[in-house]
Design goal:
The protein has 80 residues and is an alpha+beta fold. It has one domain. 40% of the residues lie in helices and 10% in strands. It is built from two helices and two strands, in the order αββα.
Length: 80
């Protein structure tokens, strides 16, 4: 779904969190680059990514970091 802002819109905070994690896996952003957090939009009331402000705490969770690293390695291995 798209918002009037032109950004992808996610129906819930949980869906947006998972989408942000998947984005980090797919594009292998360096720490502090690319989208770094999510927010609820005042226009559509759904959730979007942002590359501004403070990085989301959940991206610094050890389990999330390990998951991202493992899935990147798996993706890279399967693309060889």
């Amino acid at each position: 779904m798209k918002c009037v802002t032109g950004k992808n819109a996610y129906e819930s905070e949980e869906v947006a969190r998972e989408a942000l994690i998947q984005n980090r896996i797919r594009f292998n952003h360096r720490q502090g680059s690319g989208p770094i957090n999510i927010y609820q939009c005042s226009d559509c009331q759904e959730w979007h990514f942002t590359s501004k402000g403070v990085e989301a705490d959940f991206l610094n969770d050890d389990e999330v970091i390990d998951r991202i690293r493992k899935e990147i390695r798996l993706r890279d291995w399967t693309n060889e």
